[in-house]
């Protein structure tokens, strides 16, 4: 009975050591799990911050594009008005040439209108180029957002 008792105590002692070892492993794994959760939370927060930043940039670029479109529309209207003025000046110039009175003034008016028209045309082209550049930037941001969605889908599948 004493031998059996000693054997059982020995087994109990071994089981306690094994239990403590397993408990240590369990605590280590729980700690590692908690660290991984914290790491994932931080990565998710970082990703969310990046998405918000990209969205803010997208809104800013959208505002710029709208402003450029409005500016381009205004310049087109001004261009059309100047073309009408140019036609009127040319008609006036022709009338003055027929009447031989005030020829120099009509030429000067036509030249001024032409110079103004050329300036507006050049300005309109620059605005249109800026608008196209803004549209390309918006496309780039949209592609970036698509790739962020793919990254988050891959990371969710990897869990």
Describe the structure.
With 159 residues, the chain is mostly helical. The chain has two helices and no strands. The two termini are 54 Å apart. The model has no long low-confidence stretch (mean pLDDT 86). Residues 19-94 form a coiled coil. Keywords: Coiled coil. Belongs to the ENTR1 family.
Spell out the blueprint of helices and strands.
Layout: H1 2-99, H2 103-158
Helix pairs in contact: 1-2
Keywords: Coiled coil
Coiled coil: 19-94
Organism: Mionectes macconnelli (McConnell's flycatcher)
Helix content: over 70%
What value does the average pLDDT take? 86
Shape: rod-shaped
Structural class: mainly alpha
Number of strands: 0
Rg for CA atoms = 39 Å
Low-confidence stretches: none
Q: How does the major sheet shape up? A: none
State the distance separating the first and last CA atoms: 54 Å
Query: Count of DSSP helices?
Result: 2
Succession of helices and strands: HH
Assess the beta-strand content as a share of residues: under 5%
List the defining traits of the structure above.
single chain; 159 residues; mainly alpha; rod-shaped; coiled coil; ENTR1; Endosome-associated-trafficking regulator 1
In short:
With about 160 residues, the protein is mainly α.
